[in-house]
Amino acid sequence: MNRSNTAAANATSSGTDDRKSVLHLGFNRGDVILVTGAGSGIGRATALRAAELGLAVAAWDLNGDTVAATAAQINADGGTALALACDVGDAGQVDAAFVRSRELGTIRHLANVAGPPSAVAMEFEAALVLCVGSMRRMVDVWLSGGAPEGASLVNIASVAGNLVGTNSDWYCAAKAGIAGYTRHLAAYRSDEVRSNTVAPGMTDTPRLTGFAASEVGQRTLQRIPLGRMGSPDDIAWAVLFLLSPLAGYINGAFLPVDGGWTVTQ
C-alpha cells in the first residue's frame, strides 16, 4: 500500500471526514493549474476543489469581479490563487494572462471551461471560432515554450451536440468541435500533453437558474435516472480526476457527466 492509500485508510478507520487530509489524487502540492471560466459555475467549482487538493490556481474569467471572489476564497482558506480578468477569445489578452499566470510557477494542468451559454444568440461561424478556436489558442500558447512534464488538460464540451441535439445550432456544432479537437490532441500531441473531454449534462449553474422549475426542465429531470440536475462539484471532480496522475493512462476519453440522461434518449 502506498503512502496516499495508507493515509486514506487511516483516516477512514479513525472516522474522519476531512477531505483535505486524505484527497490529493496524486497531484504534487503546489503544482499550478489554470482554470478558465473560474468566476462561476463549473469553472469556479474546479478552481475551489483544485485548491483543496493542494494545487496553486491561476483563475481566469471574463468577469473580473467574480473571478477575484473565487481567488479571494481560495487564499482565505489557505490556498494559493491568482485572479485574472481575461477574454479567451482575445489573443492579446490570453498572451498577457499567461505571462502573469506563470508567476505562480510552471503551469502543469489546464481546465478549459470558459465558453458562452447556449441561450446567447451568436452568428454561427463566429461562435465556432470563439468556442473551438479559443480552446486551441489556450493550448497552443500554453505549450509554445515546451510542454511541462506530466502535462494534462481537460476541455469542457457538452452532451449537447455530442450525444443529443438542441435548438442552438452553433452550440451543438461548437461542442462537437471541442470534442473532435480533443481527440486530435490525444492522437497527435500525446508526446506533449494528455488530453480528455468532459461533457456535462444539465448542471445547476447560474446559467440554468430557474430552468429545473420550468415545464421543459421538469420533463428533462424525469428522464435523468438519478433524478436530479448535476452540481458544479459533480463536474469539477470528474475534471480533476482526468487531470490527475491517477488518470495517467486515460487519453482521448469523452466522459459524459449527466446522471445517465443520455442513455435514456
UniProtKB/TrEMBL annotation:
A molecular-function term among this protein's GO annotations: oxidoreductase activity
Protein name: SDR family NAD(P)-dependent oxidoreductase
The keyword Oxidoreductase is assigned to this record: yes
UniProt xrefs under InterPro entries: NAD(P)-bd_dom_sf, Sc_DH/Rdtase_CS, SDR_fam
Family statement: Belongs to the short-chain dehydrogenases/reductases (SDR) family.
Organism name: Dactylosporangium cerinum
Keywords tagged on the record: Oxidoreductase
EC number assigned by the record: 1.1.1.-
Lineage per the UniProt record: Bacteria, Bacillati, Actinomycetota, Actinomycetes, Micromonosporales
Entry-linked Pfam families: adh_short_C2 (PF13561)
SUPFAM superfamilies: NAD(P)-binding Rossmann-fold domains
Signal peptide: none
PANTHER family for this protein: NAD(P)-BINDING PROTEIN (PTHR42760:SF122), SHORT-CHAIN DEHYDROGENASES/REDUCTASES FAMILY MEMBER (PTHR42760)
